Amino acid sequence: MNPSMSRRQFLETAGAVTLSSRAVSAHGIDLPRPARWPQDKLAAISLTFDDAMRTQLDNAVPILNRYGLKGTFFAITGPGSSWLKRIGDWQRLAAEGNEIGSHTVNHPCMLKDIEIHSQNYTPEMMLKEIRDSSQDIAARLGAQRGLTFAYPCGDMTFGPPAEQVRNQAHYLDYVADYYIAARGYNSWAPVVAEDLNPLTVPVLGWTFGKDFSSLLTTMEPVRRGGHWGVFVFHGIGGQWLSITTQTLDELASYLKEHSEIWTATFGDVVRYIQESKALGVQTGGSGFQFLLTWPLDARIYDLPLTLKWTLPSSWKSCSAEADGRPLAISATAKSGFEAVLVDVPPQTKRLLFREK
Ligand SMILES: [Zn+2]
Fold it and tell me: How far away, in angstroms, is 107 Cα from ligand 1 center?
């Protein structure tokens, strides 16, 4: 990281590192470029669940498991929370590949009728919410990959009206210091990967009371545009702001059947986008060898990237190697020209294609 940058600036501009890489090198050789989504899938969906509720453990998790899907659970970590009451269940969930993010310690928000409300919060109090919940989750899960955050009630500021503009900047700075990305609640839109601001990721809208067909309608612009859609749920088959277990079951079944959609945790989609934007690719001298640079922290940004490469016109097929190890070629002949897809392990330095 550039030492003159704040962590917030860094997260917001990760993609600017190598924007000068072009699709064609100075020698006229096509450069491999990241597919927008892994295996060149059509779109991405994340299923996120707020407030660490017991109906999520009891009703949502068995459904996700039945269809082999992973979810993201944003936990309130304070006294009386189901996070503390059922910590063993949450730890098991994380060990099985689900993501646990933070939703602060006490869920402070601006609504006056919600306790704890945050109009009386000072910057120090909000920093404590953000820092302590991240430390609690990291300590209990041994999380090394970087945590994600969801703003309680979607509020991105706190304090009395006269201080809310200033506090908005504090809030983003604090979140950036402890998390790799954060999800809102009140701004609704598909996420365009190229335009991602990881600190203010919007959702697809409120879901409570909706049935499957209306969730499907919500997803339509995501599919059509090849974007990322983030669902937010609370209670599943009970408790507050709930949808029925049948609705979640139908949605999960749909996502399993539609493997052209990449269903992944919130954090993994952010990792893939940030790595794609930051990857550097240049030709590496002789033959079809390319030198890759991965400027982001390898402990956090640890996903393979799918690179797409157009074969020279005389080639019928090819093999590929990453740092001397053979790579599987996962697709050919996409969209009217001969192209291949390879899943490249993170931190690979040299990628080589050979005619076959
Ligand atoms: Zn909440």
Answer: 6
Distance (Å) from CA 305 to ligand 1 centroid: 32
Contact (Cβ atoms closer than 8 angstroms) between residue 90 and residue 83 = yes
Reading the block at residue 55, the tokens are 């109906």
CA of 51 to the centre of ligand 1 (A): 5
Reported as a pLDDT band with limits 50, 70 and 90, residue 3 is: low
Average pLDDT over residues 270-276: 98
CA 106 to ligand 1 center in whole angstroms: 10
User: Measured in angstroms, how far is the CA atom of residue 42 from the centroid of ligand 1?
Assistant: 30
- Reported as a single tens digit per residue, the pLDDT across 281-326 is 999 877 899 999 999 999 999 999 999 998 888 888 889 999 999 9
State both tokens at 103: 């939703």
Cβ proximity of 49 and 73 under 8 Å: yes
Kindly state the average pLDDT of the residues 21-48.
85
Please check the confidence at residue 189 and state whether its pLDDT lies above 70.
yes
How many other C-beta atoms can be found within 10 angstroms of the C-beta atom of residue 13?
Answer: 15
Alpha carbon of 205 to ligand 1 centroid (Å): 14
Distance 232 CA to ligand 1 centre (A): 10
pLDDT in tens, 81-101: 999 999 999 999 999 999 999
Domains and CATH numbers, the chain: 7-38+280-355 (2.60.40), 42-270 (3.20.20.370)
Q: How close is the Cα of 45 to the center of ligand 1, in Å?
A: 20
Confidence (pLDDT) at 22 = 47
Q: Tell me the C-alpha distance between 249 and 245, whole Å.
A: 6
Q: Where are the alpha helices (DSSP H) in the chain?
A: 7-12, 54-55, 61-66, 82-85, 87-95, 123-141, 164-178, 212-225, 245-257, 266-278
